[in-house]
Design goal:
Radius of gyration: 39 Å
Number of helices: 4
Oligomer: single chain
Structural class: alpha+beta
Helix content: 10-25%
Strand content: 25-35%
């Protein structure tokens, strides 16, 4: 099957005959053609048109706004329904605008082309969070950040160059108290003035120079300092219980002695009065 696909594409692009003369246009056109991008890696997705026969294949072409001709994507000349085509290598200039189109075909039929909207890599990509690790430092947290790798940028432009800053959302696990910090990007950030021995969770997202879309990280949690071990807590509570029991015993003893003293004085007074009466 791949051989006749290549022959048809070669025949068409050499200009020997219009594509419509080779095969008939009667297949449903693809729909929902859209270009998506994450961390400067771009792809196109689409859906087959209604009542598209099984076994239909799809081909993709791209165009730059500074050029007049469409270019086939070599790795996407015979896609099946549901396959996604990677366009990262096709969109070489991150500052340019691109468009893609999709066509369905069989050995005897084709569809009309369905085009995407214009796409600009820098402004339309979604930037994900950096890689994060969190550790405690007494009454603070140390956050280590690392920029994700991407194949969508040249050596003179790194993903970190697109960051305008980093947003840290900090939440105390115990009661949900939270605050937010907007800081410049740094491989190491220290968040201070936290409670010792308390767990905090941090989510991280980036502010960008070109794109308005970004994704937050999952929560990363850590204690500012190691919490006291459970055995120590048991000892502390045991000592507190013992002191409380001792206090109750001492208080009871004092009350009891006071009652004994009062009874002894009362008896002595009664005996004194009795002796006086006998005299």
């Amino acid at each position: 099957m791949r051989l006749w696909v290549l022959l048809l594409l070669l025949y068409f692009h050499l200009g020997n005959a219009p594509w419509t003369e080779v095969v008939g246009i009667s297949l449903p056109a693809p729909s929902n053609v859209s270009i998506s991008s994450f961390n400067m890696e771009h792809s196109i997705s689409f859906l087959p048109g209604p009542r598209t026969p099984s076994g239909t294949l799809f081909t993709i072409q791209v165009i730059c706004h500074r050029k007049k001709s469409w270019t086939p994507v070599r790795s996407c000349v015979d896609l099946t329904a549901g396959q996604v085509c990677n366009l990262t290598r096709e969109f070489k200039d991150p500052y340019s605008h691109y468009k893609a189109r999709v066509q369905a075909f069989t050995p005897t039929q084709t569809s009309s082309w369905t085009e995407s909207g214009w796409f600009q890599p820098l402004s339309d990509t979604v930037l994900g969070p950096p890689h994060v690790s969190v550790s405690g430092c007494g009454n603070c947290l140390i956050l280590q950040l690392r920029v994700p790798e991407t194949r969508g940028l040249h050596q003179d432009l790194q993903l970190m160059d697109l960051y305008r800053g980093v947003i840290f959302h900090v939440q105390r696990t115990r009661d949900g108290a939270q605050f937010r910090l907007n800081l410049p990007y740094s491989e190491e950030t220290v968040i201070t003035y936290l409670q010792p021995g308390v767990e905090y969770c941090v989510t991280v997202s980036v502010r960008t120079l070109f794109s308005s879309s970004s994704v937050s990280s999952k929560p990363y949690c850590a204690f500012t300092s190691p919490p006291p071990p459970r055995s120590s807590l048991h000892v502390v509570f045991g000592l507190l219980g013992a002191f409380c029991m001792l206090g109750f015993l001492l208080f009871g003893l004092v009350v009891y002695r006071h009652q004994l003293s009062s009874e002894f004085l009362r008896q002595c007074r009664s005996r004194t009065l009795s002796y006086t009466d006998t005299q």
